[in-house]
Amino acid sequence: MATILNIETSTAVCSAAVSCEGEIEFHLEDYNGNSHANNLGVFIKQSLEFVADRQMQLDAVAVSCGPGSYTGLRIGVSMAKGICFGHGIPLIAIPTLEVLCVIPLLYEDIDESALLCPMIDARRMEVYTALYDRSLHQLRETSAVVINDNFMSDELDKHPIYFFGNGAGKCRDIINHPNARFIDGITPLAKSMPLLAEKAYRKQDFKDVAYFEPFYLKDFIASTPKKLL
């Protein structure tokens, strides 16, 4: 049984959650944007107080590791590392695009043969995206792409694909395939992380606290060639 503090700061939303065996016990969220430096410390303090008040033992910290906002990820990962150092517990890194996939899988009526395409907004018509099946097996690696009307046309010919995340809205009028489905209002949140964090904990999939770095958007911009798919 693992008690995990989950931290998500990859977008304008700041959130933290305490989970036990993959179940949410406590969570806090702020949607006001660009206030992570002020809010995250308060959220973590309240989360740790919740753990202490219930005489729980904190076993790990899970942090959403991008792609996402440079400032947001830097704040989230720095705080996560500090807690891990201070408590002598392991660090778990959860890809932000996987965090996004949890919400439609849990709360939407997804076709059995469907694929999931989470999107994080970048500049102009560029998004950071990957492709997953319903078991969260990654079928396309995370990459920065420029969206046009041929985007994932081969996959769309074979499967319904659900597009969601803060980059999906600007693609709605461009991806016109009949198998393209769009879900609005999907945001990566700490309360969507517990099942993924618990799975990683059981596999002991931990990161080196001293050297771990998240996947900043700037890293994708520098290293990923823009390509039309």
TrEMBL record:
Entry's Gene Ontology molecular function annotations: tRNA N(6)-L-threonylcarbamoyladenine synthase activity
Gene Ontology terms: biological process: tRNA threonylcarbamoyladenosine modification
Gene3D superfamilies on file: 3.30.420.40
SUPFAM superfamilies per the UniProt record, alphabetical: Actin-like ATPase domain (SSF53067)
Catalytic EC class: transferase
InterPro entries, A to Z: ATPase_NBD (IPR043129), Gcp-like_dom (IPR000905), T6A_TsaB (IPR022496)
Gcp-like domain segment(s): 35-151
Cited Pfam families: TsaD
Gene Ontology, cellular component aspect: cytosol
EC annotation from Swiss-Prot or TrEMBL: 2.3.1.234
UniProt keyword list: Acyltransferase, Transferase
UniProt cross-references to NCBIfam families, sorted A to Z: T6A_YeaZ
Record's protein name: tRNA (Adenosine(37)-N6)-threonylcarbamoyltransferase complex dimerization subunit type 1 TsaB
Organism: Candidatus Avibacteroides avistercoris
Gene that encodes it: tsaB
